[in-house]
Amino acid sequence: MAIDEKLEPVMAEVMRRNPGETEFHQATREVLESLGVVLARHPDYAQDALLERICEPERQIIFRVPWVDDDGCVQINRGFRVEFNSALGPYKGGLRFHPSVSLGIVKFLGFEQTFKNALTGMPIGGGKGGSDFNPRGRSEGEIMRFCQSLMTELYRHIGEYTDVPAGDIGVGQREIGFMFGQYKRITNRYESGVLTGKGLRWGGSRVRREATGYGTTYFVQSMLATKGDSLEGKRVVVSGSGNVAVYTMEKVIQFGGKVVACSDSNGIVVDEDGIDLDLVKEIKEVRRERISTYKKLRKGNATYIEDGRIWTVPCDIAMPSATQNELNGADAKALIGNGCIAVGEGANMPTTPEAVRLFQKAGVLFAPGKASNAGGVATSALEMQQNASRDSWTFEQTEARLATIMAAIHDRCAETADDYGMPGNYVAGANIAGFIRVSEAMRALGVI
Ligand code: NAP
């Protein structure tokens, strides 16, 4: 889809103001491409520079993070928090620790998060943050000192009613614990609602760990149901082997699917007997080793391919759950050629625009991450609810809420796409429905 000519100046201004931030340009373009039909029906949405404002973060914070490594050397990283949009509630979105983190990456993630959070129907704005810190190979002590140093600056910008970070790539419960501890120490307040993704014994929510992967799988199941189909008996390929990937695999298996491949940034494992999820959890969550260990420990026919392309493994359903732009046009052609019928994005923007177009042209059901992976942030909002009421829900109760939220997001996207004459186009449905909710709140709050 091309950008409507009325929206071209908005895109041009984003490019001028954010030079070199290609991922942010990509994410903005994708949303603006969906909005031409909205402006044709509601020209008033273009008033008061609403579109220009929605593309400009409310606040961008960049800071130095000094810390001392195990050899006594001082290391310097850069910390970021982009507080993108708070029209619907406090900024909400994860922190990512990965060497590729830059302002442009954080901005694209914060922009996506704004629409995703709106789609959940919950009172949360959008934000994102992180650091170019590389946790790979760092000791527990180094990770702790880094997290403490990051929080020593970040604490002044966040709060239960202001900005509530969570985890993302490289940030799990351990890191959230170190950051929460430092926040508590500096502020002298046990403010559980300031971070989500906490451990169960110190204010966390059941199902938060599983939520993004489970939610993505619920969304895929709902898409398949529109065609009278389901995950039962399907061959599924899941990229990554981190938080989102592991719990995507778990729910796929619970729904009767067979996961035949997963990966990390070094290589892929293919296991025709079905991936042994307990083994993946042992390798990634306990030993914190590379996925290549799978081949060494698994008896049977598993193979490990260093630098392999996971999307060449034949499957019915592809669930990219590692990182942005990990599935390109050539991968999409391979998947379509092998008979893939559905793609569910667990990661944020893992599919390139060319690949999305190819899937849509081929009639492959395509779930965009800002809708399908919203279960994580939705359960973070449930964690905030439990913190505010000093309550703790059961696993079943919390998962039931997650399932209801995911069904509602699916239906909201599908109905919006129908309403705008693009049935089955979940990308357009998600962008339009998210945009309308954020825009209406922004208009009500005046020019701020
Ligand atoms: P994670 O636990 O750190 O796992 C990330 C996985 O992706 C790892 O297997 C990692 O492999 C792989 N990966 C990361 N960067 C890569 C790269 N540049 N190339 C190839 N593989 C790479 O992170 P996560 O929380 O699962 O997040 C995965 C994706 O889901 C991200 O796009 C994130 O923004 C998105 N997401 C997460 C949540 C959440 O609740 N956690 C919610 C919504 C969306 P290595 O170990 O080798 O690096």
TrEMBL record:
The record marks 168 as: Important for catalysis. SMART domains: ELFV_dehydrog (SM00839). The active site is at 128 (proton donor). One of its GO terms (molecular function) is glutamate dehydrogenase (NADP+) activity. GO terms for cellular component: cytosol. Keywords: NAD, Nucleotide-binding, Oxidoreductase. Substrate binds at residues 92, 113, 116, 167, 380. The keyword Transmembrane helix does not apply. It catalyses: L-glutamate + NADP(+) + H2O = 2-oxoglutarate + NH4(+) + NADPH + H(+). Pfam families: ELFV_dehydrog, ELFV_dehydrog_N. GO terms for biological process: glutamate biosynthetic process. Residues 205-446 form the Glutamate/phenylalanine/leucine/valine/L-tryptophan dehydrogenase C-terminal domain. NAD(+) binds at residues 212, 243. Homohexamer. Belongs to the Glu/Leu/Phe/Val dehydrogenases family. Catalyzes the reversible oxidative deamination of glutamate to alpha-ketoglutarate and ammonia. This is Glutamate dehydrogenase. The lineage of its organism: Bacteria, Pseudomonadati, Pseudomonadota, Alphaproteobacteria, Rhodobacterales.
